[in-house]
């Protein structure tokens, strides 16, 4: 029986991890069933918006591929495997109501507090700036503010939390629940929400008398990137500065250490860091402009979530299991540095590899044919095997779906290229995972995201070399498999084509 | 390689053999050939009536038997080998040409045309030159020589076309002309008709 899984990303890094995890679900690295949510005060943040849009896009495609009789792919296929249950209007939560967005003084109604409490506030938040800081764009790297706001507001019956709290009731019927939190240790919202949320869930479990079948895991991102100091004086005063990350992390870890020693908060805890730090070349204090590129350490956190969700049994005998991972070489990073999943050291490489090949092949080899040139292909074997009797390429619905699939694959390719190209710690650092130059260009100077997909893939590019140290079918063999495909009964619509392509792009054992 | 070249080639060797065995039998008779080598009566009669340029009852049968032995039998074996060899070449070419995306195989239609021209022109040419070598021009009526060679060319083209159609891999199939017509033929009833 698979567990009910819940993944909560807290703060900016947590939101990015939610975005990343959606792609991992698409490539088959997620659990069968999952609810994902974001806790971030900085709701207009570009990272949050991106994650929410990604989840919606994923869900639209999932519905089309997995609804009976539409465009079915195989039910046991890893492609778009996870049923993400999050609903658009309850997948994110801000501790402080967006409409009021006070500062800390207003939040605690400072002006009507008695003198003792006022002094206590001044003692805890000694800077007047802290008390008057607008919380519109999050807690600006100040966990002390975030914790206060978080605890003050988290007890509310927000639909976001009801998703989890209501599910806890099903534990009595033998259901297993796994909740995983991801955040950074150096931010404001993340660092404050990480232990607070876990502890709140623990206290609810205690109140409900639940002692088993609910597991809480967490992944903490230690400082892994730095950015230039903001030019604007106000930003410099109010925002999280990367110079302070290490110091803040030290403080937070010290606090967590003492906390976790005293009480059991997490059944499993994963820590991820990156040394030396990845240098980002721009700064945004928050809001829509804060749309940071995805980075490799976030992928590690996502993998820890997958490990937590998909492992057979969680060992709770250990008081607090703590996991950490690190790369083997300072100058080179390859698939061997990626943690194993389900005791299979190649699982991540195999599934990411298969999905990447599918995306590249769909975009560069098939998209134009499926949308524009298909009429001239009517006599071909691939058309007979995959299209002719199963779907009508003349229909606007089918064409819209093909465009939607292509858009998703494009977004994925941009994402994976971004992860690999941005995650180099130095110019000499070599990330030997995927040959992203087969489908994208990287130029940090001219593009904010740094990455752009190439319009046409050169014929000399070899799909077998797309994934480093991975064995797969050649492009010729992929085309041959597509041409000779025998449709299993379960497939329908454009799902026949997509399933065939995904199967043909499989990673073969041997490397 | 095995699935796309060797297996189809072996199948072609097997499937084409009855046709050539039939032609051999028509002129030689299997048991008669093995026992005496005197040729099959109907085949000999066909040559005397339709092919031989000289009608001399004392030598007609011997001339016909010489023609069968010296020209027809080697040409049957050559044609059988030639067609399968050309098919093998086409299959190997199809295996090693890069067909890695839709629309690519169609570009190789020209190759098919070239190979089919080599096939029928080569066979007709071989028939002509071997006729010269054997001195068959003295045996065959002059006015049927060119219709015979053209007929051989047409039959050779048709045979190679069907060989390609049956033995070419699905990936390369679109490089064969008019393949859509054959692929469009369906013996199943449409759902609407049910």
Taken in chain order, the helices and strands of chain B follow as: HHHHHHH
Pair of chains with the largest interface and how many residues each contributes: A-B, 22 and 18 residues
Shape of chain A: globular
Radius of gyration from the alpha-carbon trace of chain A, in angstroms = 24 Å
Characterize the main sheet of chain A: 8 strands, parallel
Coarse structural class of chain A:
alpha/beta
The count of domains of chain B is 1
Distance between the termini of chain B: 42 Å
| Secondary structure: number of strands of chain A | 16
CATH class of the largest domain in chain A: Alpha Beta
Strand residue content of chain B: under 5%
Shape of chain B: elongated
Number of domains of chain A: 3
Q: Count the strands of chain B?
A: 0
Helix content of chain A: 40-55%
State the helix count of chain B: 7
Q: What proportion of the residues of chain B is helical, as a percent range?
A: over 70%
Alpha-beta classification of chain B: mainly alpha
CATH topology name of the largest domain in chain A: Rossmann fold
Can you give the mean pLDDT of chain A?
Answer: 84
What does this 3D model show about the protein?
Chain A is α/β, with parallel strands linked by helices. Chain A has three domains: 4-98 and 138-326, Tubulin/FtsZ, GTPase domain (Rossmann fold, 3-Layer(aba) Sandwich); 102-135, no CATH class; 348-508, no CATH class. Helices cover 42% and strands 12% of the residues of chain A. Chain A has 16 helices and 16 strands. Chain A has helices spanning 11-26, 46-66, 104-107, 115-124, 128-132, 143-153, 159-168, 189-208, 233-238, 245-262, 296-310, 347-373, 381-388, 396-422, 475-483, 495-504; strands at residues 4-10, 33-39, 83-84, 92-93, 177-184, 214-221, 225-226, 268-272, 278-279, 321-324, 332-334, 430-432, 440-442, 451-453, 471-472, 507-508. In chain A, strands 1, 2, 3, 4, 5, 6, 8 and 10 form an eight-stranded parallel beta sheet that branches. A two-stranded parallel sheet of chain A has the order 7-9. In chain A, strands 11-12 form a two-stranded parallel ribbon. In chain A, helix 6 (143-153) runs parallel beside helix 8 (189-208) and helix 13 (381-388) crosses helix 15. The longest helix of chain A has 27 residues, at 347-373. The two termini of chain A are 32 Å apart. The model of chain A has no long low-confidence stretch (mean pLDDT 84). Chain B is elongated, with a radius of gyration of 20 Å. Chain B is built from seven helices and no strands. Chain B has one domain (2-193). Chain B has 194 residues and is mainly α. Chain B has helices at 2-28, 30-35, 41-50, 60-96, 109-134, 142-167, 179-184. Chain B is 71% helix and 0% strand.
């Amino acid at each position: 029986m698979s567990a009910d899984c819940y993944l909560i990303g807290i703060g900016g890094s947590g939101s990015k991890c939610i975005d990343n995890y959606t792609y991992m679900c698409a490539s088959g690295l997620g659990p069968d069933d999952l609810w994902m949510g974001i806790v971030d005060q900085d709701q207009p943040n570009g990272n949050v918006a991106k994650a929410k849009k990604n989840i919606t896009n994923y869900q639209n495609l999932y519905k089309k591929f997995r609804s009976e009789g539409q465009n079915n792919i195989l039910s046991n296929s890893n492609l778009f495997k996870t049923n993400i249950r999050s609903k658009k209007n309850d997948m994110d939560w801000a501790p402080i109501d967006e409409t009021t967005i006070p500062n800390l003084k207003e939040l605690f109604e400072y002006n009507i507090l008695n003198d003792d409490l006022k002094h206590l506030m001044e003692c805890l938040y000694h800077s007047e700036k802290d008390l008057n800081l607008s919380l519109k764009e999050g807690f600006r790297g100040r966990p002390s503010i975030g914790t206060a706001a978080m605890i003050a507001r988290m007890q509310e019956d927000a639909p976001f939390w009801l998703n989890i709290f209501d599910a806890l009731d099903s534990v009595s019927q033998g259901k297993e629940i796994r909740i995983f939190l991801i955040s950074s240790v150096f931010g404001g919202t993340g660092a404050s929400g990480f232990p607070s949320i876990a502890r709140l869930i623990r206290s609810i479990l205690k109140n409900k008398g639940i002692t088993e079948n609910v597991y809480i895991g967490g992944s903490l991102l230690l400082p892994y990137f730095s950015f230039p100091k903001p030019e604007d004086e106000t930003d410099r005063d109010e925002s999280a500065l990367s110079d302070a990350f290490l110091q803040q992390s030290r403080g937070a870890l010290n606090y967590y250490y003492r906390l976790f020693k005293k009480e059991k908060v997490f059944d499993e805890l994963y820590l991820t860091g990156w040394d030396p730090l990845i240098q980002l070349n721009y700064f945004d204090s928050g809001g829509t402009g804060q749309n940071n590129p995805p980075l490799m350490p976030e992928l590690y956190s996502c993998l820890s979530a997958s490990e937590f969700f998909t492992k057979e049994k969680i060992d709770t005998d250990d008081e607090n299991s703590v996991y950490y991972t690190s790369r083997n070489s300072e100058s080179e990073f390859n698939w061997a540095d990626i943690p194993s999943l389900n005791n299979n050291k190649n699982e991540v490489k195999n599934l990411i590899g298969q999905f990447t090949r599918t995306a590249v092949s769909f975009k560069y080899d098939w998209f134009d044919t499926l949308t524009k040139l298909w009429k001239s292909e009517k006599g071909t074997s691939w058309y007979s095997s995959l299209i002719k009797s199963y779907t009508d390429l003349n229909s606007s619905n089918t064409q819209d779906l093909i465009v939607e699939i292509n858009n998703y694959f494009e977004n994925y390719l941009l994402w994976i290229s971004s992860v690999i190209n941005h995650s180099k710690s130095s110019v000499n650092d070599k990330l030997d995972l995927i040959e992203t130059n087969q489908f994208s260009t990287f130029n940090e100077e001219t593009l904010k995201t740094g990455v752009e997909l190439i319009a046409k893939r050169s014929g000399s590019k070899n799909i077998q070399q797309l994934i480093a140290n991975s064995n797969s079918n050649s492009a010729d063999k992929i085309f041959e498999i597509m041409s000779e495909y025998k449709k299993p009964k379960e497939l329908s619509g454009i799902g026949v084509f997509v399933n065939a392509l995904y199967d043909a792009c499989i990673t073969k054992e041997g490397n | 390689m095995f699935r796309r070249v060797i297996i189809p080639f072996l199948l072609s060797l097997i499937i084409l053999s009855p046709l050539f065995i039939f032609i051999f039998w028509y002129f030689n008779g299997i048991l008669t050939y093995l026992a005496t080598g005197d040729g099959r009566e109907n085949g000999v009669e066909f040559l005397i009536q339709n092919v031989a340029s000289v009608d001399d009852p004392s030598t007609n049968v011997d001339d016909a038997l010489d023609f069968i032995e010296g020209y027809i039998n080697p040409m049957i074996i050559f044609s059988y080998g030639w067609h399968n060899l050309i098919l093998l070449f086409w299959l190997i070419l199809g295996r090693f040409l890069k067909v890695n995306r839709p629309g690519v195989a169609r570009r190789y239609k020209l190759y098919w045309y070239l190979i089919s021209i080599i096939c029928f022109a080569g066979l007709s040419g071989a028939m002509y030159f071997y006729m010269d070598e054997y001195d068959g021009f003295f045996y065959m009526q002059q006015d049927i020589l060119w219709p015979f060679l053209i007929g051989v060319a047409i039959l050779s083209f048709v045979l190679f076309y069907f060989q390609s159609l049956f033995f070419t891999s699905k990936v390369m199939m679109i490089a064969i002309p008019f393949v859509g017509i054959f692929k469009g033929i369906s013996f199943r009833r449409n759902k609407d008709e049910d």
